[in-house]
Design a protein that fits this description.
about 230 residues; nine-stranded mixed β-sheet; about 20% helix
Length: about 230
């Protein structure tokens, strides 16, 4: 069961899911970043034996979130795909066409390099640069240009795969993917579990929610933990 945590921005409610995505309540939109679909197939094509179930599990997790939140649209802030077309993307296309009533808006990321007609066939609306909805801005990389420069706009982005280090006793530490909120922007965790982490160092006034993985041994689900 998904146990989400609400976070209020500009009087709108965003539900943070332990499955590494956000549900925007007012717009009935699922906001997500860095899925990198096709990455495992790309690695196998290069001779690196990555099992396909890694990709299928990510695709199933996304389906579970769609079924749970029942969004009207999916906003992807970049890197929906990883590289050129491969057999894994045909599975995605079938998955997508089974959900024909779901709008998909993709803010192009640096890995989204498929041909334009592929996106058209998959019924994906592609945006280059920024997607602005109400007083919110969606972009792939917060630090790239053109930036969302309206003071009233709050920005959601991805790209860096943010992570946070949590230190314990005896110099022990763990690293977790996280949602990273500042006064002007939020950086989403990578949805794909087949990605690395870029450790952040939040300032005192910033807010971080760590995503603590599930404990299958004790039947516990993944959880959202506010660190600061």
């Amino acid at each position: 069961m998904t146990v989400s945590v609400p976070y209020i921005v500009n009087q709108n409610t965003f539900w943070l899911s332990p499955e590494r995505c956000i549900f925007w309540e007012e717009e009935k939109a699922l906001v997500i970043s860095d899925l990198h679909f096709g990455k495992t197939g790309h690695f196998r094509k290069s001779g690196i034996p990555v099992p396909q179930h890694v990709y299928k599990e990510d695709l199933q997790r996304l389906l579970n979130q769609v079924q749970f939140f029942k969004p009207q649209k999916l906003i992807v802030v970049g890197d929906l795909f990883h590289s050129d077309e491969n057999k894994e993307l045909e599975l995605f296309k079938k998955w997508r066409l089974d959900l024909a009533g779901l709008e998909i808006h993709l803010v192009k990321g640096n890995h989204d390099i498929l041909k334009a007609d592929w996106y058209t066939q998959a019924e994906i609306n592609v945006i280059t640069g920024n997607l602005v909805v109400k007083n919110f801005c969606f972009r792939h990389d917060f630090n790239s240009s053109p930036i969302c420069d309206q003071p009233s706009h709050y920005t959601f982005s991805g790209h860096i795969h943010p992570g946070i280090r949590v230190s314990g006793l005896a110099r022990q530490s763990l690293r977790f993917p996280c949602f990273y909120f500042t006064e002007r922007y939020c950086i989403l965790p990578a949805f794909s579990r087949f990605t690395g982490l870029a450790l952040i160092e939040p300032k005192e006034e910033e807010t971080v929610f760590a995503i603590v993985p599930s404990d299958h041994l004790h039947g516990e689900a993944s959880a959202i933990v506010k660190l600061k």
